[in-house]
Amino acid sequence: MSRSATTTIRVEWGDCDPAGIVYYPRFFHWCDVATWNLFAVCGLPLIELQKRYGIVGFPLLEASATFRVPSRPQDLIVIATSLGPLRRKTLELRHAFSRDGAALLEAREVRVWAHHDATRPNGLRAAAIPPEVVARLTASAPA
Amino acid sequence: MSRSATTTIRVEWGDCDPAGIVYYPRFFHWCDVATWNLFAVCGLPLIELQKRYGIVGFPLLEASATFRVPSRPQDLIVIATSLGPLRRKTLELRHAFSRDGAALLEAREVRVWAHHDATRPNGLRAAAIPPEVVARLTASAPA
Amino acid sequence: MSRSATTTIRVEWGDCDPAGIVYYPRFFHWCDVATWNLFAVCGLPLIELQKRYGIVGFPLLEASATFRVPSRPQDLIVIATSLGPLRRKTLELRHAFSRDGAALLEAREVRVWAHHDATRPNGLRAAAIPPEVVARLTASAPA
Amino acid sequence: MSRSATTTIRVEWGDCDPAGIVYYPRFFHWCDVATWNLFAVCGLPLIELQKRYGIVGFPLLEASATFRVPSRPQDLIVIATSLGPLRRKTLELRHAFSRDGAALLEAREVRVWAHHDATRPNGLRAAAIPPEVVARLTASAPA
Asked: Residue A82 pairs with which residues in a beta bridge?
């Protein structure tokens, strides 16, 4: 059984568009926030990951979302994030957004473990996720 | 054969994250920009759509992207947007991002034609896409 | 003596630019968040203000900031917001940002009480701040 | 006489808030865009500045704006940017935003020339602006 985390965010005025509902790219921002929170909950805070492993963020391979109900300013949203399939260099995150227990949207991210690589045109190189990171992400007990 | 449009954007410093590459939610912002541009190219500018049909944006049902190559500040990106399946109340947009002819990412949006509806808790009501909008979106010749 | 409020925010990865520090326009986003929080603390939540008074946001007349120390991902920032001069149609907000008690930046906003006005080209009309709003904003005891 | 540059931006749906007008922090984003454009016009594109001088962005010391008229989706805005006082380590940028020749807002930024400095808690160190950068910024003829 893999790890999960809960992130709570409040929708702000500036997150919403002229329709009065959340401008949808913001939901992907919150997926990013929720992903880092899952790592922190697993004892792998962003700053440590950078210092210890030299990773440069956690670039996306895929991102998707299915929207059910719009959100508005001051809505309190809970994001339940869980780890999906973990592969050698990539991992999947699943984010279920809800408000007062009602489903708002579901999102999914596939990310790759990546280092700086000055020799490559795009400056990034995928690498195997370190065993101790895998161990922490898959531990059944709190870190 | 349905309509298509090309949108060019420049990646700015503030679009990028500490990894020095575009913060991925920004790509969905550019999908939104490209969608409105496709409508404008079809003779349906945003402001007209709001005035004539009372729509409130174009809420998302689905959004997804597959990322191939990261982008950096000052990159000039071309977004080729085409119309996918058009249904009674929804339509699909396909966005192919490239730089100097090389594919960067592909994205897909499914959006619903929606009006304000004060009687509903979420304040929105899906409606059939007006025939003249369908006509303009599917016309083979420039509007 | 006027009212004040404290807002705590965490700097996220996506708030920062390729220099690894907060992209400065985000600080103004947090000023906006902190302003609505001050109103909520005074018993004037955003949603109520819109419903009861028909205001459309709280447009800015002036905004400024003086930056002292940069902020980075995962920083926990406290924003102390207080009400500055209150005039007939405008009010001033002062935001002091700190981290672990150390000053990061100070910002200032002057905002105008505004209603929709379809007869004006810009669609907004300034109006006098209602007396009960003034009363709540200037009450010395918690609402 | 110092250099100036003109930057044109289009207001997008996602730049606006539930009041239907530009969410004000976006104007500071456009100041940042206009600043880099001024540098590019002076023959100092962002990428060159980073490679040649190792600067890390152009951190802000001060930012301010005075807003006159709100902007809405699809507005075409022209930003006239000029260089204000140039000091040893800092420079000032002045941005005048207009639409169809009518003034929308004026903004001002004071920025510092900064390098990475791993020995400092905030990781940045101010430095003198290199003479050749000063020369290009103050040249009266096009670079």
From this structure: A4, A94
- E strand spans, chain C: 4-10, 60-67, 76-86, 90-99, 102-112, 114-116, 124-126
Distance from CA of A72 to the nearest CA of D (A): 9
Which residue in D13, D20, D25 is closest to A14 by CB distance?
A: D25
pLDDT value at A143 more than 80: no
Give D107's strand partners. D65, D95
Catalytically annotated residue among C17, C32, C100, C117:
C17
| ipTM for the complex shown | 0.94
pLDDT band at A2; cut points 50, 70, 90: low
- The secondary element (H helix, E strand) that includes residue A14 is none
Let me know if B75 is a catalytic residue: no
Pairwise CA distance, residues B27 & B39, whole Å: 19
Looking at residue B13, the DSSP 8-state letter turns out to be G
List chain A residues with CB under 8 Å of C13.
32-33, 36, 46, 57
pLDDT tens digits for C40-57? 999 999 888 988 988 888
SS3 state at B135? helix
Work out the pLDDT band at B60, boundaries 50, 70, 90: very high
